[in-house]
Amino acid sequence: MKYVLVSGGVVSGLGKGVTASSIGVILKACGLRVTSIKIDPYLNTDAGTMSPFEHGEVFVLDDGGEVDLDLGNYERFLDVTLTKDNNITTGKIYQSVIDKERKGDYLGKTVQVIPHITDAIQDWIKGVSQIPVDGKEGPADVCVIELGGTVGDIESMPFIESLRQLSYSVGPENFCLVHVSLVPVIGVVGEQKTKPTQHSVRELRALGLTPHLLVCRSYQPLLENVKEKLSQFCHVPSGNILNIHDVPNIWHVPLLLRDQKAHEAILKQLNISISKSPALEEWTERAERYDSLTTPIKIAMVGKYTGLSDSYLSVLKALSHACIVCSLKLSVEWVTSSDLEDVAAKEAPDVHAAAWKALKSAAGVLVPGGFGDRGIEGKILAAKYARENRIPYLGVCLGMQISVIEFARSVLGLEGANSTEFDEHTPHPCVIFMPEGSKTHMGSTMRLGSRKTLFQTSDCITAKLYGNVQSVEERHRHRYEVNPYMVDDLEKAGLVFVGRDESGKRMEIMEIPDHPFYVGVQFHPEFKSRPNKPSVPYLGLILAASGQLNPYLRSVGEK
Fold it and tell me: If pLDDT is split at 50, 70 and 90, which confidence band does 199 have?
C-alpha cells in the first residue's frame, strides 16, 4: 500500500479536505485506485453528537457511520462509497485500546500512548486502507490520509507520532507527505509572507516528519521569488511547492494541481511508474461550465443553522449538481426559520419582514433536516406558504415531517397537531418517536445509513424522476417518523405517501398530486449526490422552480 498523508499548518480551515480529495482525483485520473481516510483528533467517538454550529454538517455513510463532512468531499470527488472506519477519531482509538485492556489482551502490561495507542492507530490505518471502496475487488493502490487539525495541536500528537512510525515502517518509497500551509498577505504593500509556513514546517520536522510537497494556500497566485524562498528555508524542491490560490469553484483545484504536475512529484516519491497523464476533461468541462452559468435560480433555504453554510454543505452541493444539469446559476436565499414566526414580528419587525420578503422572492423552497424545536413554527409557515401558493417545495427529513404537521393543521383542521419531539402532549401526534429509538443515549441511536424505499405507485413525480424503478436506496438519519395511524386520514385529504419502507409502515416519500412540486422525503438524498449524477429530489426541485420539470419528465418517459 502507498500512503499519501495530507497535514495542515498555520490555521485550520485551509481546505485540507478539498486538497486531499483533489490529490485523489489526479491519482485516480492517472489510472490508480484510490481510497481515503480522515483522522479527527477530537475525543468524540464520531461526529453524530456534534452541533452543526461546532463542526459543520454530519455526513452519513451507507453503513450508517456519522462522520466528518470531509468524507463527503472524498465520496463526491472520487465517486467512492466509504465506511465508518474510514473516519478515525481519538475516541474510537482510545475506546478500542481500553476495550482490549479490559479483556486482558495486553497480558498485564502498563497500557501507554506509546506503543499501545500509536500501534492501534497504525493497525487501524493499515486495516482500513485494504477495504475496497470503488466497487472492485481487492485493495486500492493508494490511500490518501488527511490529518485533521493543525500541526502542533496537543490532540494530534499521538497521530503525528504514529504516522512518523508508519512512514518508517513502510519505507520512504511508500509514504508521501503533503503539507498544506497558508501564505498570508500583510499590510497595504501586499507582500506574501512565508514565515508562518516556515514555522509550520519546522514544527513538523521537529516531530519527525519531513514534507515532500508543500501546498501553499493564498489569495493570489504565489510569486516565483516566494517559492524560491520557501524552497530554501523549508528544504523542499521548488518544483514540489504547489500553490492553490482562490478559484471560482472547487472543481478547479484538481486542475490547478495537475497543471503544476503534482501527480508527477507524488508518483516519483512513491516510486510509481505511470506514463499516463491525468485525464480530467470531465472536470475541466464542469469547472468551466459552472463559471459560465448566468441564468439565476433562487432557492430559499429555510433552516436553523443558516449562519454557517457548512451546516448544510451536502445540501448546497446537491443543489449545485442539479443546477449544472439544468444550466442554471444557483442563488441561495438564506432564511432563518425563527424570523418567519409571529414572535419575531413583535420583537424584530424589520427582521421578520426581511425574512418573508426573502422567502417570497424565491422560485423554490427547501426545508432541510435538523433537530430541536427552535424555529419549527417558522418552517411550518414556510411549508404552508409553498403549499398554498403552489411554489415548488422540497422537505428533507424534518422538512418532510413539518409539512405533514402543517397539512394536518391546515387541511384536516387538527388544531395543535405536532411532533412529539416538540410537544409530548400534542392531541394529534403526526410525528412520533421510533419504537427502537433511545431517549437516554444520543450517539448512534437513530435510524442510520442506507435503507430501501418501495414506490407505492409509478404515477407520481418522484417515481418518474428516479426512472420508474420499483425501489431506491437512500441514506437516513432520524429518530422520529410519520405516525402510521394518521396516514389514512392524511391520504384521504390529498397528501399521498408514494414511497414506504419494506414493512409498509414507515413513510419515506410524500407528495401532493395536484401541486406543481410538493415533495417530502424522510431520507437525506444529498449524501449520495455526485457532480455527474445529481440527487433526484434536488434535481426535481430545480427543474420545477425553473419551469423545466414537465418537459424533463416527458423526455424521461420517452426514453
Answer: very high
Exposed, middle or buried: residue 248 (CB in 10 Å: 0-12, 13-18, 19+)? exposed
Look up residue 193 and give its three cell numbers: 509572507
**Active site includes 397?**
yes
Query: Is residue 474 within a helix (H) or strand (E), and if so which, with residue range?
Result: strand 471-478
- From the list 439, 421, 450, the residue with the least C-alpha distance to 508 is 450
pLDDT of 171: 94
Q: Which residue out of 116, 252, 428, 524 is catalytically annotated?
A: 524
What's CA 217's distance to the chain center, in Å? 22
**Annotated catalytic residue within 66, 377, 511, 526:** 526
The arithmetic mean of pLDDT across residues 440-463, rounded, is 84
- How many angstroms separate the CA atoms of 529 and 163, rounded? 32
Rounded CA-CA distance 471/384 in Å is 29
- DSSP strands (E only) in 56-194: 59-60, 66-67, 87-89, 142-147, 175-182, 185-186, 191-192
Measured distance between the N- and C-terminal CA atoms of the chain, rounded to whole angstroms? 44
Looking at residue 437, the DSSP 8-state letter turns out to be -
C-alpha cell at 140: 486500492
460 is catalytic: no
Q: Packing angle between helix 398-410 and helix 376-388, nearest 10 degrees?
A: 70
Instruction: Judge whether 234 counts as a catalytic residue.
Output: no
Q: What is the pLDDT of residue 432?
A: 94
DSSP structure string for 81-117: ---GGGEEEHHHHHHHHHHHHHHTTTTTPPP-IIIII
Residue type, 22: S
pLDDT of residue 15: 87
pLDDT of the residue at 54: 76
- Give the pairing of strands 393-396 and 518-521: parallel
CB atoms within 10 A of CB 425: 8
List the one residue out of 417, 434, 436, 435 whose CA is nearest residue 426. 417
CB distance 278 to 29 below 8 Å:
yes
Task: Tell me the pLDDT tens digit for each residue of 380-432.
Answer: 999 999 999 999 999 999 999 999 999 999 999 999 999 999 999 999 999 99
What is the side-by-side order of every strand in the sheet holding 418-419?
418-419, 429-433, 480-482
Our separate counts of H helices and E strands in the chain read 20, 23
Concatenate the DSSP letters of all residues of 388-431 into one string.
HTT--EEEETHHHHHHHHHHHHHTS--TT-EETTT-TT-SSEEE
Catalytic residue, from 30, 397, 430, 460: name it. 397
Q: How far apart are CA 268 and CA 247, in angstroms?
A: 27
Q: Cell 499516463 appears where?
A: 276
Residue 260 has φ and ψ, to the nearest 5°, of -95, 10
> What DSSP string describes 280-303?
-HHHHHHHHHHHH--SEEEEEEEE
CB 385 within 8 A of CB 404: no
Does residue 441 surpass a pLDDT of 60? no
Residue 286 pLDDT greater than 60, yes or no: yes
Ramachandran region, residue 15 (left: φ > 0; alpha: ψ -120 to 50; beta: rest) = left
